[in-house]
Amino acid sequence: MLLRPISLSLALLLTTAPVFAQTAPTPPAVTPTTTPRETIEGTLSQERTVIGIPPLATASVQTVAGLRTDSLGRQIAEVIAADLERSGLYEPIGPNGVPAITRAEVQAPRFAEWQTRGAENVVHGFVDAGSNGSLIVGCYLYDTALGSELVRKGFEIQPADWRRAAHKCADAIYSRLSGEAPFFDSRVAYIAESGPKGNRIKRLAIMDSDGGNHRFITNGQALAISPRFSPDYKKIVYVSYLNNRVRVFIYDVASGSQKLVTESSNATFAPRWSPDGTQILYSMAVNGNTDIYRISANGGTPVRLTNTPGIDVGGSFSPDGRKIVFESDRSGGQQIYTMNIDGSNQQRISFGGGRAATPEWSPRGDLIAFTRMGGGEFRIGVMTPSGGGVRMLTNSWQDEAPTWSPNGRVIQFFRTTRGREGKSSLWQVDLTGVNLRRLPTPQDGSDPSWGPVLP
Amino acid sequence: MTIRKSTAMIAAITMLAVGACAKKAPDTLPPAPEGTGTDPGAGTGTGVIPGSQEDFLASVGLEGDRVFFDYDQYNVDAQDQATLQSQAQWLQRNPAVRVTLEGHADERGTRDYNIALGERRANAAKNYLASLGIDPSRINVISYGKERPAELGSTEAAYAKNRRAVTVVIGQ
Question: Which of A283, A328, A282 is nearest to A309 (CA)?
Fold first, then answer.
């Protein structure tokens, strides 16, 4: 309900002209002085680009829907700075501790002063009251040494959606400086956990990629696990123990209603969407034997894809929708296999020490993230779709269930601590294996599922 | 508002999905068990309702409601068979009783795989009970994977107690 009007208005503005297109000269083509960091192996965290981010200015302080435009200017700058800092590539200066800027300065930064503060780039912007209770948010990225504009973005938004404007600004800045696709303006579905280890309360919850706009979906009376956002964020497929059965439900975010993905007396679990949102993979146990099935998201007759006596479970579509990566213990222990979407051409791709589980195909198609089990520990790793180039990204007692950022550069997962008081929390790590961070959640967390960039 | 609507709906139709030991007291007393009435656990005057979970636990003894498995295994060994034979005797004395077999795994497996593994274990126990003459339609199966450990530690001793299939009386 919240999302739709926002995305429409954002899409409208993005596909037409920026609202402030006529208020600033056409930016000259300039090569940024910062070097895009695209290499896989490197020391990203040690060479962070310093970016000045003062509070966004406002033409005149007004209160829109209970929000003051000057306060919002500071909050939006805080979100932009936090996004850029969290990427591991940038070291923001501000918005706290730097001088506020005037509305006129937005398009005429004091480059010399920002250079003195050590900023290679500076972000300026504004929050103005629009018509009909809307807000106009603009943001600009400059190179302080060259004194030139690198990127600009403008949005007309409903006041409640100010965080999305901030994420869109951060995405534009990140993309311009790194050369990577954007990922901040995206959402995460996960399981919020509370209560003692032997009787955990597990609730379906959703939030922005930075933990903002957090919302619990289920109340915890039925155990909920393994959620996945549909590609359009309108639905969440997940497993509920409602009525003491293990079944896959499709939850409709706008209406709050849910339906079974398929009617069966057997347990169904481990659901995944196809990239276009039309198909759902799930696993079903029949007399103790688990196989993988594919069904239309609208129901109908399921197609059985695996047919071995072992456990075949999970699954993740390649971004082109033509292949599926899944796990099977047909060789004696959990390993990772690929197959065509009709179930043909099943091939094992994971070898080497230990077991391999929970494969997730990168949105870029070039890598598969997975959980490596060995020596009593779970670690997150990546490999190519043919099983080569294995690299481990984390090293803890139990790191499980990777999910990719929309641009395939960051992996979220959940980390469990050992012992009677063991708890789970959400973490993310860069594809390089550096910049490991814990995500803020109101309770403990597990089973993260990262969706695509919002339109 | 959509949130509130949905949670209220779920609250209204959800049963607790947690109780490994949950038991529902019947509204009316069930008929006395048929047969010889020699069930040692169903002594008169103790307040134990014949055919109840309490009666079952008293009959099968300490940990007699569960069988244990090796790491990533689901075969029913000789000790498990003795346990299940004891359960089968009680089930035969209480032919109207239905049970749920709950399959569990230790925390050293990934979540989805452990649900599949718990299914294997619960079905292995169910199949053995069926081989002893218990009507399989009396036995529900559910897997909790690693979601409901009986022992909370991260030790081999705790894991051994968590790799289990537990028989729970659900009513008549």
Answer: A328
Compare A375 and A443 and report the one with higher pLDDT: A443
* Residue B88 confidence (pLDDT): 98
According to DSSP, residue A376 is labeled T
Greater confidence (B31 vs B57) lies with B57
> For residue A196, is the peptide bond before it cis, meaning its omega torsion is within 30 degrees of 0?
no
B60-96 per-position pLDDT tens digit:
999 999 999 999 999 999 999 999 999 999 999 999 9
CA distance A187 to A2: 13
* Residue A205: band (very low, low, confident or very high) from pLDDT cuts 50, 70, 90: very high
pTM of the model: 0.86
pLDDT of amino acid A46: 62
Round to whole Å and give the CA distance between A19 and A156.
8
A112 exposed, middle or buried (CB, 10 Å; 0-12, 13-18, 19+)?
exposed
User: Does residue A6 have a pLDDT over 90?
Assistant: no
With beta carbons under 8 A apart, name residues in chain A contacting B150: 198
CA of B49 to nearest chain A CA: how many angstroms apart?
Answer: 24
For residue A40, pLDDT beyond 50: no
Instruction: Report the run of H or E that residue B166 belongs to, with start and end.
Output: strand B164-171
DSSP characters over A424-435? EEEEEEETTS--
Percent helix, strand, coil in chain A (nearest 5)? Answer: 15, 40, 45
> Is A362 near chain B, with CB under 8 Å?
no
Measure the CA–CA gap between A225 and A222, rounded to whole angstroms.
Answer: 10
B99 in contact with chain A, both atoms CB, cutoff 8 A: no
**Residue A289 DSSP SS3:** strand
Q: Is the pLDDT of residue A340 over 70?
A: yes
User: What is the average pLDDT score of chain A?
Assistant: 90
Q: Is A315 left (phi over 0), alpha (psi -120 to 50) or beta?
A: left
The rounded distance, in Å, linking the Cα atoms of A162 and A159 is: 6
Q: Distance between CA atoms of A298 and A278, rounded to whole angstroms?
A: 8
**Is the minimum CB–CB distance between B150 and chain A shorter than 8 Å?**
yes
Q: d(Cα B159, Cα B109) in Å, to the nearest integer?
A: 11
Question: Rounded to 10 degrees, what is the CA torsion of A267, A371, A86, A365?
Answer: -90
**Residue A278 dihedral angles phi and psi, to the nearest 5°:** -90, -20
Q: What is the least distance, in Å, from the CA of A254 to any CA of chain B?
A: 7
Report the alpha-carbon distance of residue A298 to residue A450 in Å, rounded.
23
Q: Which residue of B has its CA nearest to A217?
A: B3
Report the residue from A216, A257, A371 with minimal CB separation from B110. Answer: A371
Dist. CA A410–CA A413, nearest whole Å: 10
Query: Which two tokens mark B104?
Result: 């569990």
Q: Give the ipTM of the model, two decimals please.
A: 0.89
The beta-carbon neighbor of B119 closest among A202, A245, A290 is: A290
Integer Cα distance of A99 and A290 in angstroms: 61
Output the DSSP codes for B61-127. Answer: -TTTTEEE--TT-----HHHHHHHHHHHHHHHHSTT-EEEEEEE--TTS-HHHHHHHHHHHHHHHHH
A22 shares contact with chain B (CB less than 8 Å): no
Q: What angle do CA B34, B39, B43 make, to 5 degrees?
A: 110
Query: Among positive and negative, which fits the CA dihedral A154, A159, A164, A166?
Result: positive
